[in-house]
Amino acid sequence: MRRREFLINAAAACGVPLLPLGADAWATPLPGTSRKRLIVIFLRGAVDGLSVVAPYTEQEYYTSRPTIALPRPGHTGGLFDLDGRFGLHPALASLQPLWKERSLAFVHACGSPDESRSHFDAQAYMELGTPGQKLTADGWMNRLLGTFPGAHPPTEAVNFGNTVPRILEGSLPVASIAPKEDAESSPSDEGTLGEVFDRLYRGNDAMSAAYRQGRAAHTQLMADFGRDIKEAAAGAPSVRGFPLEAEKLCVLMKQDPTIKLAFFGLSGWDTHVSQGAGQGQLANHLKSLGDGLALLRRQLAGAYDETVVVVISEFGRTARENGSGGTDHGHGNVMWVMGGPIAGGKVYGEWPGIDEESLHEGRDLAITTDFRAVIGDVLVGHMGLARDAVPRVFPAGPNEQATRLGLVRT
Fold it and tell me: For residues 58-92, b (16+ Cβ closer than 10 Å) or e, as one string?
């Protein structure tokens, strides 16, 4: 399919009428149109930031995670060294060139100051940009649209999803492109083997009774995990389809100068069970995400110099692994920031440590940087928002000094 035909079909699917412009019109910026763009990727389910960017120089990391900690750099399946202190998950190998070219950065011990461990509440607070306040009428990305000068065509903000997420809800229109893949399915180890054991232990003896009791408890546990994962996904598609959706966005962004904002919600990060280390559930998801981000870097080509990508998640996960080889709902996390304007090759933020005394409530990575400070720094340094206008996007957010992180090259 030719690019122009793709754009027409995509717009029609979004309910956005396109004028019959000439063949070269899509690549021609409108007078006064800024080509600066922001892409936000929300990892629904709470990604384990301590595996994404691991503090491999701290022994507590290995003591707390005997089966899921990543080997140190230089070992088989080990972390990619970032700065002599932190290492990048090996499944994100496709992002190593971005780190080396200094267009990728991380902000560790970052997140929302609200202490909720509910996926629903934490996601809402982060999307509304008002932690602790559920009644905010619009999302912060929609409020950001309102700070842009001029008219607001529906294609100014593009959402990849079946429904408009809270982050984009508001008075200004947005376009949505439905993904092909449904939300992440619930975990399950049921099947042929389970049925064999059911038949084997269907008698009235004590062992059979104990088996059935354990089986019932296991079934209830998996049902609880399934409900948690469904809540965490919030209807978002699995990250597995992200590279294809990222490619669609590249076509749109290169051809349509009106697009300034894009949003992806990606599910599959609620790793209570069998999280894995260098391989496994988390590694597979990270590889899809990393490959999609690397594709964005390649296919945006020159437009990458005017694009910033921010990757967020509602909260982190516990410093210690649980008895099911996974991690539970936590607090502090890591934010990812990439793009041509980013002063990358650095792990930002004040690192609190993960020793017993430093953990939040004795179990989680503490938060030393508010997520709104990170986004505010990007909005000012990249999108050109006046610093005194940041409260229009994040009312009651961090003070002006807290948003001067220096993430964007000057």
Answer: bebbeebbeebbbbebeeeebbbebeeebbbbbbb
Greater pLDDT, 112 or 181: 112
Q: Is 139 strand, coil or helix?
A: coil
- What 8-state DSSP symbol labels residue 38? E
d(CA 257, CA 89): 35
Q: Residue 282: how many CB atoms within 10 A of its CB?
A: 26
Beta-strand runs (E) in 219-276: 261-266
Which residue has 């296991």 as its token pair?
A: 218
Query: Distance between CA 185 and CA 230 in Å, rounded?
Result: 8
- For residue 159, the cross-strand partners are 176, 263
The reported pLDDT for the residue numbered 294 is: 97
Supply the pTM of this predicted model: 0.82
* Alpha-carbon span 77 to 289, nearest angstrom: 19
- Give burial (CB, 10 Å; 0-12/13-18/19+) of 220: exposed
User: At residue 99, does pLDDT exceed 70?
Assistant: yes
